Amino acid sequence: MNKETEAIRNDLAQLAEDARALMAVTTDAAGEKVTEARRRLTDTLNRSKELCGRARDRAVEKARTIDAAVRDHPYESIAISVGVGLVAGLLLANRRPAARD
Predict the structure, then answer these.
(1) What is the distance between the alpha carbons of residues 51 and 57, in angstroms, rounded to a whole number?
(2) Residue 83 pLDDT > 80
(3) Is 98 helix (H, G, I), strand (E, B) or coil?
(4) Which of 39, 5, 1, 7 shows the shortest CA–CA distance to 23?
(5) DSSP codes, 83-98
(6) What mean pLDDT is reported for the chain?
(7) Structural contact between residues 41 and 16, judged by C-beta atoms closer than 8 angstroms
(8) 40: pLDDT confidence band, cut at 50, 70 and 90?
(9) End-to-end CA distance of the chain
(10) What is the pLDDT of residues 7-23, one digit of tens each?
């Protein structure tokens, strides 16, 4: 997993932990606004957990599909990889400024 994805995961985990801590601290707080804010926060945490689970499931499913395709067509996969690498290399080589004497 790349560093950015891991950082996002850590940030979301910290946010969820902070939200749970806030809810624990405000358990005894009275008032309609506090009660409504706690309810909305709980709903948001539950939805976020569901969305993360669905995204993870979709990513695993896509990875399995790609793995199966590569196993079924190894030579085609290699050819596509080489072609993409060649195109990327050519594009990057053309982006460099020309050497000046």
Answers:
(1) 10
(2) yes
(3) coil
(4) 39
(5) HHHHHHHHHHHHHSPP
(6) 82
(7) no
(8) confident
(9) 44
(10) 777 777 888 887 878 77
H/E element, 97: none
The continuous run of DSSP H or E covering 31 comes out as none
Which two tokens mark 73? Answer: 């067509």
**What is the pLDDT averaged over residues 35-55?**
82
Q: How far is CA 5 from CA 39, 77, 85, 93, in A?
A: 29, 26, 24, 29
Closest CA to 68 of 55, 57, 77, 59: 77
Which residues, 6 or more positions from 12, have their beta carbon under 8 angstroms from its beta carbon?
Answer: 48, 52
Close Cβ partners of 52 (under 8 Å, ≥ 6 residues apart):
12
